[in-house]
Design goal:
It is a single chain. With about 260 residues, this protein is mainly alpha-helical. The strands form 2 sheets. Strands 3-4-5 form a 3-stranded parallel β-sheet. A two-stranded antiparallel sheet has the order 1-2. Helix 6 links the parallel strand 3 and strand 4. Helix 3 crosses helix 5 and helix 5 packs parallel to helix 6. The protein is elongated, with a radius of gyration of 22 Å. About 0% of the residues have low confidence.
Length: about 260
């Protein structure tokens, strides 16, 4: 919604395109046709899913369970997640492990595809003139998975962004799992035995994914922003930062060409 409203800020000669790293929305190449851009943005919908349902396992926990280092991680996650199921069910820890291994494998693939999509978009912007700005709307990137492989993809993004003059910005919604009812003098909502620890894990997971997104943005000479509420002011800030032209004048020494 904020992206749609921001379209009005740009001049008629500015080229704007839309692409989805998932490939689930047909891309619109940078164009002056605002109707095409609006139609594409209108089709963009969040498709978040919990890869570890019926449990919640963070990206860090998935990585550690997948590597089996430290070995205590599986025990801690199983204790937290099995409390609300039935701690007496012996199969629960094994179920947690099986779900974590499958989710870790899927997350590695998704992270690699996400970074490759960003790389392709940055490379494709080379053909256009003027300021080249990429704004990613994302829940984050799990760059903690397969660190060595993902680092190579980050290096490729960094190199192409520098060579093509692309500025990469990212907007990520700031998740809030805190229960502030007690601070307002109201009774807290009842939670399961493991819900407090699970909320901590969710908050940590959100930070990990945001840090990964920040890593991508910083590699491409941009910045990532946590968005609370609507993102209009961040679009406006990015538009202002990338619209200025600076001229540096230096006095030449006497007798210089």
């Amino acid at each position: 919604a904020a992206a749609l409203r921001t379209l009005e800020q740009f001049g008629p000669d500015d080229l704007i395109g839309v692409a989805a790293s998932s490939g689930l929305v047909a891309p619109v190449n940078p164009t002056q046709d605002r109707a095409a851009v609006r139609a594409a943005l209108d089709k963009v919908r969040g498709r978040a899913e919990n890869l570890t349902a019926p449990f919640f396992i963070s990206a860090r926990e998935l990585e550690e369970i997948d590597r089996d280092v430290p070995q205590t991680t599986l025990t801690q996650v199983a204790r937290r997640e099995c409390l609300d199921v039935d701690p007496r069910i012996e199969q629960c820890p094994q179920q947690v492990r099986a779900v974590a291994m499958a989710a870790a494998s899927e997350l590695k693939v998704r992270a690699a595809m996400q970074l490759e999509a960003y790389h392709q978009i940055v490379a494709a912007m080379k053909q256009f003139q003027g300021q080249r700005v990429l704004i990613a709307l994302s829940g984050g990137v799990p760059t903690n998975m397969e660190r060595e492989l993902l680092s190579k993809r980050l290096d490729a993004i960094m190199r192409d962004a520098a060579e093509n003059g692309v500025k990469f910005y990212a907007l990520a919604e700031d998740p809030d799992y805190a229960d502030v009812s007690s601070a307002m003098g109201q009774p807290q909502a009842p939670t399961g035995a493991g819900e407090t620890d699970r909320n901590r894990s969710r908050i940590e997971n959100g930070q990990i994914l945001f840090n990964g997104m920040s890593e991508v943005a910083n590699a491409a000479g941009g910045e990532a922003y946590h968005v609370i509420g609507q993102g209009d002011r961040f679009f406006t800030r990015i538009e202002a930062q990338t619209s200025a032209i600076y001229r540096l004048a230096v006095d030449a020494p006497a007798g210089a060409d």
